[in-house]
Amino acid sequence: MLSLPFMQNALAAGFLIALLCPIIGIFLVLRRFSMIGDTLAHSSFAGVAIGLVIGIHPTITSVIFTTLAAVMIEYMRDSFKRYSEILMSVVMTLSVGIAIILVSSGSANASITQYLFGSILTVTSEDLILVLAVTIASSLLVARFYNELIYSTFDEDGAKVSGIRVKTVNYIFALLMGASISASIRITGILVISSLIVLPVASAMQFRKGFTRTLAIAVIVSVIDVIAGLVLSYYLDSAPGGAIAIMSVATMVISLVMNPMSK
């Protein structure tokens, strides 16, 4: 299995995604913004469809479109705080509508299913380079704004009073969300990427450790889920998205049994 070039690319990209998703996911979960991850996953669908129609690499157009959607959500969330959940539904509906129109018109070819469910057969060196670039950039930015992100996550009003530029931090995080989700969909698929962002973090939280340790546990769980899911999908000859989703749920159940939060 490891001697096959496409599997080497898939495992390398999967490992990078497994590192990337919890770094973004832990802030989303603690901010109770899990719905944003699902919204941006649907936005990436529109980005992929646009790329297929105009003849540009779908991952590139997905990164651009999803990042713009993330910034738009952050702007509307800040301007219309009472209606943030409704506005996210608007963005999701708009994105899905654009994607359906383009796909149903026949302008986008059948390869759209590779992005819906993920595909280990089609991960190219270009995809791997893009995921690597996004992972490095996201890790560096999170490290640079680590304290600001933590402070604004737990107490946004207190962060503003202390002089932290919360709006700037939130917009930077929005950019990271959009880029991370759209860069990951080639492996995991659009339909399950939000679960990979949320479930490893939720599993790690069952152990009730500090923030940094919880993040470390989430990364370990994510790596296990992604690698095991890719290997399982290879032997089952199936799309990796479903296998990764099943592994994520399985590790979540195991963490609940090992260390239930109700204790």
TrEMBL record:
Gene3D superfamilies: ABC transporter involved in vitamin B12 uptake, BtuC. SUPFAM superfamilies: ABC transporter involved in vitamin B12 uptake, BtuC. The keyword Transport applies. It is a multi-pass membrane protein. The keyword Transmembrane applies. It is found in: Cell membrane; Membrane. Keywords: Membrane, Transmembrane, Transmembrane helix, Transport. InterPro entries: ABC_BtuC-like, ABC_TroCD. The chain crosses the membrane at residues 12-33, 45-73, 85-108, 214-236, 242-261. Belongs to the ABC-3 integral membrane protein family. This is Zinc transport system permease protein. It comes from Youngiibacter multivorans. The lineage of its organism: Bacteria, Bacillati, Bacillota, Clostridia, Eubacteriales.
